[in-house]
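Ligand: adenosine-5'-diphosphate. Inputs:
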Amino acid sequence: MPEVMKLEDIRKNFGSIQALRGVDLTVNGGEVLALLGDNGAGKSTLIKTISGIYPIDGGQITVAGKPVRINSPREAMDLGIETIHQDTSLAPDLSIARNLFLGREPVTIPALGVFAPLDLKRLKAEASKLLRRVGISKNLDADAPVNSLSGGERQSIAISRAMQFSASLIILDEPTNNLGVEETNGVLRFIREVRDAGHSVIYITHNIHHVMNVADRAVVMRHGRIVADLMIRDTDLLSLEAIIMGADAATLAAGLKHGKQH
Ligand SMILES: Nc1ncnc2c1ncn2[C@@H]1O[C@H](COP(=O)(O)OP(=O)(O)O)[C@@H](O)[C@H]1O
Ligand SMILES: [Mg+2]
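Predicted complex:
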């Protein structure tokens, strides 16, 4: 699969804090990349630079082979990058239908630009179709406000939104925090579906079991740098955990190979 995004020497400072100290990372097409690391490692900051929330202080971002500057969330979306933060990416008081199209609602007279009236009929029809497609149509009315939904249903809506705009890269920053078992399984199922449909996913989580379950690759950050980049099939839960907690990836990998010879 061709590369979706390449990050080279990405740097980001907050005053005297060097949150990103030169991050190099390539995201390939159709992969689930788990982005791991202890609190404060720089995961969210990295994601925010890719999603147009923080400008970078140094380095180069390349999307689909073209060097880009990503100055706003809108620009990130236009480049095919959708980021899903827990709860915050939805507007709780707006309907499910509106949320599915937020910022990209179908309009009746497109020539009027931002003043064009929303095509509410089409909006609702499209939303219902989408909800059916992701299998959560049963009891959900596209007109209901998002704040009437459970955490898992909200995640599903946010992920559906990313899927329908055929984002090439979907980023989930700790999407299963505070979700129940059923809802969490729903999110994991979505991640697999999204990958199987050819999208790439960056999945930030502290749950190593989820990583072993859905990810193809694990990238570990520590103090603003990437310290390990492994294929899941080449590692195991304990090694991954050890690397996140500070062990040296190369030493562990050598130990793993050595162990397999016996
Ligand atoms: N908006 C901000 N202002 C100042 N410091 C920040 C800000 N965001 C993050 N940091 C700092 O940058 C470092 C990385 O944080 P973060 O990216 O949130 O880590 P992670 O998501 O891996 O837990 C931490 O030291 C954090 O305190
Ligand atoms: Mg974070």
